[in-house]
Amino acid sequence: MDSIKLWTEEEQNFYGKNVWRESTIPEEFTEWCTSFSGRTALISGEEQLTYGELYKRCIEMSSWLAERNVRRGECVLLQMPNSIGFMIVLFAILRIGAVPVLALPAQRASDVIALCALAEPTHYIGVNRYLSTDYGEVTDRLRSEQPQIQIITFSTDEDPDLMLRECRSSYPVEACHGSNLDIALLLLSGGTTGTPKLIPRTHAGYSYNYRTMASITGMDGDSVYLNILPTAHNFSLSCPGIFGVLSRGGKIVIAGSGSFDEGFELIARHGVTITAMVPTLARLWAEAVEWDEPDLSSLKLLQVGGARLDPSDAEFIMKRFGCRLQQVFGTAEGLICCTRPDDPDSAVLHSQGRPISEYDVCRIVDDEERDVPEGQTGELIVKGPYTIHEYYRAGDRNKGAFTVDGYYRMGDLVRLREDGNFEVVGRIKEQINRAGEKIAAAEVETLLLKHPCIESCAVVPVKDEVLGERICAFAIGEEVKLNEVRDFLMNNGLALYKLPDQLVFIDRWPLTAVGKVDKKRLSQIGAEAA
Ligand code: OOB
């Protein structure tokens, strides 16, 4: 592993005394498994594992991996679908003190190759196939382009829960006792295309992240968390996600897919109390509630985050699920904001919440990094006890992403409301620059959703010879003509220069690996459609 830029010495002393724990994540894992030994930790299909059993399986797996040369301080690229096996392998790698690089199951060969070139892992650990995805192309290309990487693939054919029963060994491994400021894992940054960026999260910072979220969401031994989003994503791994729930002795139910029929059944069967979704999925499930009439009475908290949630969708989702909604606005780089379960509806429906830690230092700034006047919109920049100071091996690419005094630039345009919560107005890059006029995609989207024929929409820039960028609106719903939509928007007070230049109806959204609407892909489709 290369070393990374950390907090200043002064910050480290302060956080070390007041904020962080001294332990590493695998040490905490051992504590959880010991304290909650007899309780159920994981459920997938018909399989169940207690904390004690999970611990035993992790130790066996770490011996098995160590025998195959997985070593402390080396990177291991891990790409597995959500499963009990994924958790066993993840905790086994952590126990050895190797550093898992968490690729998402939906990432294809070219992404994996790029990640390997950057992280230089000694191993790739994956599966042969899952649902409709065959990972043969990934492993074939790795064999020819990165022959030094050892490939371990588990077969999912006979054992869909990836219980990996064969992976036992008596090879001795001691649990690694590293420093809490070592890199625990490398997460992928949200960017969908181009060279990937790797996010080095330390044990101290990551553990603080999931422990704080576990306490805000009130996790305890009675909590039952339904894991739907890819486990490798920060939202479902630590907000509170898998780590946060396990740290309190709760149960994790692993869904095999994102489908609502399976999800509703699991919620009713296991008495699920909390789950996390992206807005597109939450809306879909909320619609299905009407005809499926599921029993969702056990559900206490529905977390929605990862992308903008329109207030009218938020209201619809909260009503249909019949439980508290929590908006989570966070990033794999660190900062997590959320509304609190006891916040009034006005905050839960209309804002994206506030930082989870009193030690998060957030500023809203203009192009010249000056703080904007109160209540004005600007870019959110942040530093604090769990936000990174640089990407792993990014060299000059770190420059644009951090300020000279160590703040991470979120790239999001936000406004601080009077109640102390942030409202995310858009992404800096989601501004459309139409002949020099800047248009926030979100403003047009909010008005478009008021149109009776439009169920959901996304507004993106499309390269244009005359305008530089034109405004392209994508919609799902009943087809209407561009002119009618423009008239409608104008009547609703939208400025003339913000009216869409192009309107494209589509059947379903192209999605990124975690299930957010893929706006880059939409820009391409818009260019091709013209
Ligand atoms: C989460 O993390 P990433 O790293 O995949 O993406 C971060 C970006 C943010 O900078 C923001 O642009 C967007 O995703 N975002 C939201 C949002 N939550 C994330 N935009 C509007 N409203 C929200 N609620 O996406 C992530 C990580 C941990 C918890 C939740 C989400």
Automatic annotation (TrEMBL):
One GO MF term, please?
acid-thiol ligase activity
Superkingdom per UniProt? Bacteria
In which pathway does this enzyme or protein participate? Answer: Siderophore biosynthesis
InterPro entries from the xrefs? AMP-bd_C, AMP-bd_C_sf, AMP-binding_CS, AMP-dep_synth/lig_dom, ANL_N_sf, ATP-dep_AMP-bd_enzyme
According to the entry, every stretch annotated as the AMP-binding enzyme C-terminal domain falls at 443-516
Keywords of the record: Ligase
Domain named AMP-dependent synthetase/ligase is located at: 29-392
Protein name (Swiss-Prot/TrEMBL)? Yersiniabactin salicyl-AMP ligase
Top-level taxonomy: Bacteria, Pseudomonadati, Pseudomonadota, Gammaproteobacteria, Aeromonadales
